[in-house]
Records
---
Amino acid sequence: MNRYNIEDTIYALATAWAKSAIAVVRISGKGCIGTLSKAIGGKVDIRNKPSNSAIYCRLISPVDGHHVDDIVLTLYRDGHGYTGEDAAEISCHGGLQVVQAVLATMAELGFRQALPGEFSLRAFLHGKMDLTRAEAVNELINAQGMTGRAMALKRLNGDLFRRISDIKATVVRIMGTVEVQLDYSEDEIGEDLTFPMEELEKAIEALGTIRDSYNTGRLYSQGAKVVLAGPSNAGKSSLFNLFLKEDRSIVSAQKGTTRDYIEAMCTVGGIPIRLYDTAGFRSFSESEIEEEGIRRSHSLVEGADIIIYMVDSSDMGAMDGSVLSDPRCIAVLNKSDLKDVDMDGFVKLSVVTGAGFSELCSRITEKLTSDLGVSDESALVIENDRQKENLSRAVSSLQAARLAVESGLPLDIVSMDIQEALEALGELTGEVTTDDILDRIFGSFCVGK
Ligand SMILES: Nc1nc2c(ncn2[C@@H]2O[C@H](COP(=O)(O)OP(=O)(O)OP(=O)(O)O)[C@@H](O)[C@H]2O)c(=O)[nH]1
Ligand SMILES: [Mg+2]
């Protein structure tokens, strides 16, 4: 790749740029341990220390010898570390001044600041992981809910890679049969060889299943937009606070309390939810500000995945029928502690006592997952656009091969379609790749990963 020179030794802060107890600076590159030894004070000689050893030592400036920090240095040799090349991790004190001084020391040693994703790129280039695992690293770091985390971890452990490799082996076998028939005449082969249609069907189905898990993966990684809407004073802000388990939005008996909408993240049934508390709908408003708030509520409702339409069971006059009939809507009758009303299709809730809250949560997860097929964290699920595109390409090429066989087209056409599917699968795992693809994948990682 042009942007990355893998001959350099690179360094980066692997932990967040914020004050903390410990910070970790990562270093990687051929011969980096020898160079790093110039910045280790006292009698410690790290050049002879074995791989995976952790050494408590003093970091000094290689320029003027001043004491930078007391550190724990972990060394990785012979491909033992993340990147598959000589590498080290400095655990230093987590103050920002300390971190800055440690990073400056790395620059003094002649090391270069790593680009985003450069450690993972090196891990890929040194064969430590395939592309699906490398992408899973990023997906795991960005996971917002427990289910999304578990799904990313399965991919990191190689489940996706192994599944794709198995299917690919089948496709290679099919290709073999086609090639034999292309290379030899019918007389030489005899009548034993026929096209393995059943195997092809199985491969198409297996790849299609993984491709179709994308929507589930997206939901658990990106989450859904849930908007609390309804007449003023219904208890929307109270419910918002209940979801967040904190007193976040102002609650008051006065109508028109919430003006500007408020948004926050939470998880419901393992699904990351971006939750919006909005200004209550009223036919008349007391100010221009409230009117603008109501206008914003309507536009949030338009873009919602789920609308929780909330009504006060003791004040049911003002219901908006158009929202209630919307398929995205979950209707809620709140304040059931004050008045116990049963209405078909409505979830009966009391934000004050918590009664009905778990049913509301189940209704949200049901609605979000009902069309997905898989929502089980043990399932193999993808969440990545690139992987989905490659799988779609592989599926359509194999479908084209099937059609070609069924239509009695020449075998070299069948062979071309199967070849195209194999290329798509090769790109998926990274066996076949280009600088452009690598740039796109690793460029989206954070620095230090
Ligand atoms: N008894 C009872 N009171 C509730 C319940 N939920 C909310 N309230 C009360 O109802 C009043 C209005 O609650 P809010 O949460 O501010 O209502 P809102 O829908 O956000 O109102 P606006 O922001 O004005 O649109 C407050 O006094 C709450 O304490 C409930 O389940 N039971
Ligand atoms: Mg409110």
Note: The first strand starts at residue 10 and ends at 13.
---
Amino acid sequence: MGKNWKFVTVLADKQVKEEEDVTLRCQTNTGDVTVTWEKKDQKLCCVEGKHRTGKEGSAIFLEIKKVELGDEGKYTALAHNDSLWGRAGQGWLGQNMHGLRQDPIISALKSFKISSGDVKELRFLLHGPVGAGKSSIINTIKTIFEGHQYINCLTGSALTGESLTTKFEKFNVGDVPFTFYDVMGLEKGGSKGVHPDDIISALKGHVPNNYEFKACAPIDKDNRHYILDPTLNDKIHCLVSVIPADTISRMDDEVIQKMRNIRVAASELRIPQVVFLTTVDQSCPMTKKDMTKLYQSRKIKQKVDECRNKLGVAPNCIFPVKNYHEETKPNEQLNCLMLEAFTQIVHSADDFVKRNSSQQETVE
Ligand SMILES: Nc1nc2c(ncn2[C@@H]2O[C@H](COP(=O)(O)OP(=O)(O)OP(=O)(O)O)[C@@H](O)[C@H]2O)c(=O)[nH]1
Ligand SMILES: [Mg+2]
């Protein structure tokens, strides 16, 4: 079999009774792929005697013995060979995007209940270089949820070279309890763009809504706007790094270093982190023409690898997305790609609040 493998069948939803065994199975057109498994978007920790993974010819399988309640969840098979990668999961068809429909994903998100009563809304912070598409992500998600083109989050800074977003601005998504925070872009040098310390303060919950960033003077305790005793409701529950796929190769080392430092701080705070890789259309003409080809694109795969190397992120935390940019009509494939990435951050943020709500809240 050549390098251009694909999933022929994907994982099907399974209902299983407790104590029964179950096998999740999908099929590629070649046996020549390396496979890893995820449960709820985290690497599956295989337990001896409980899980068995393997390949039978071109089939990929995961066997789970004596199913218990804790085994419930979304399972994903990640497969790759030297040139192509893809995922097959329940609800995330990856390599085969033809089967994806937005309505079930939207319904699941609309009926999503936050695990902790302490938290009113899940808060996501988008950060990245100037013009990366941060504000456009908010517009795209609001467009999907609100059913009409949403363009109120100011975009277009790529033209000016300076960040168009200057405030710590909050955006709600429809009537679901999810909130995005948009920030000014990161720039090289100490006197331009958002200061990384401001982002770290925002992660910890010290920065109020509508705070006007000052590149040279990050917020501190002496600032009258500084939130001294943030609660879990003030904190950020998931950090989204936004990287433009088309210009990743030209990204300034200083900006990359700032992003890495922010990621280190987020890791210390145990805040989940993912990367949204934007402008996939600008990076690959094949994907621009047909979004379903995204997971067959070597160019996109290269961008994911580059992103992994530059930021030190695992590839399963990198979500290639496309924002609404010049289109005037809804595009279901664009929506599905964004919705899958969005679902991931909702679950990650929810895990974070679950972990932290019962614990003593400490102020850094
Ligand atoms: N083709 C294409 N263009 C995009 C995409 N995402 C964003 N853009 C365009 O890129 C430009 C910058 O996008 P913004 O959303 O303003 O970027 P930002 O990260 O918010 O920028 P600042 O707030 O200024 O730092 C705009 O012209 C967008 O329309 C995408 O996925 N594909
Ligand atoms: Mg912006």
Note: The first helix runs from residue 102 to 110.
